[in-house]
Write a structure and sequence with these properties.
- Helix content is about 40%, strand content about 15%.
- It has about 230 residues and is an alpha/beta fold.
- It has one domain: TIM Barrel.
- It has an 8-stranded parallel sheet.
- The longest helix is centred in the first third of the chain and has 22 residues.
- It is globular.
- It starts with 5 loop residues before the first helix and ends in a 7-residue tail after the last helix.
- The model has no long low-confidence stretch (mean pLDDT about 95).
Length: about 230
């Protein structure tokens, strides 16, 4: 298990930035078009503050409770919610998040939109796509309809698509899933030209995701080292 010191985290951040630059160079992309979303689940606010001070403003949480606590401390960040959006906490997510990456049509989405309207906000959201048939999210054949539903929900702005591929032995084995999400986005853009974000790729496979067009990569372990076991 790696030590989570400031020196280690900042060195890790630089390593991830270099990895993105290298991936972009291989496919002729501008690395400025890729945002590192630092995934802070179980990570202390102090460590998130280190990456924020280093110029990485995009931070993410899976759980509302952690998002509330950390947002109160780190007020300059752009906070992404990347966990399962649930009806009983969607109103809290609407109050706390700047971007919600895990929306699907349903009651939670409706409540998220209503709360955003009540707060006078237009909340950018990404539709979560399940390419595995076992995770949360909408199946590929329902993406266009889901995007239509999100785009027609007051208080929300359809910003893009997000996916978590199945666990693979190598980063390269995740490539077909990233390529498929890119293809789905290309199909959506015709009706929704502002839907341009692709959130895909994590610590083990973010370079492949960038090669396939990711505009956001969600990085936890590669920044903050292995999380301690829970329970």
């Amino acid at each position: 298990m790696g030590a989570r010191s400031k020196q280690t985290v900042l060195a890790n951040l630089e390593r991830v930035r270099e990895g993105i630059t290298e991936a972009c160079a291989r496919v002729g992309r501008d690395p400025q078009g890729v945002r590192i979303v630092a995934a802070g689940k179980t990570v202390q606010p102090e460590a998130l503050e280190w990456v924020l001070e280093a110029g990485n403003r995009d931070l993410a949480e899976n759980y509302v409770k952690e998002l509330r606590v950390k947002r109160a401390v780190l007020t300059d960040a752009i906070w992404h919610f990347i966990g399962n959006l649930q009806s009983h906490t969607a109103h809290q997510v609407a109050d706390l998040a700047d971007v919600v990456q895990s929306v699907v049509p349903g009651s939670a989405l409706a409540r998220l939109g209503r709360r955003a309207v009540a707060g006078g906000r237009i909340l950018p959201v990404l539709v979560e796509v399940d390419l595995t048939e076992v995770r949360s999210g909408v199946p590929p054949q329902e993406v266009l309809a889901a995007c239509d539903a999100v785009a027609s929900t007051a208080g929300l702005r359809l910003a893009g698509l997000m996916t978590v591929p199945p666990l693979t032995r190598t980063a390269e084995e995740a490539r077909p899933y990233f390529a498929r999400l890119r293809g789905l986005l290309e199909a959506v853009v015709g009706d929704h030209p502002r839907c341009v974000e692709l959130s895909m790729g994590m610590s083990l496979d973010y370079q492949v995701a960038v090669e396939e067009g990711a505009t956001m990569v969600r990085i936890g372990t590669a920044l903050f080292c292995e999380r301690p076991p829970t329970g």
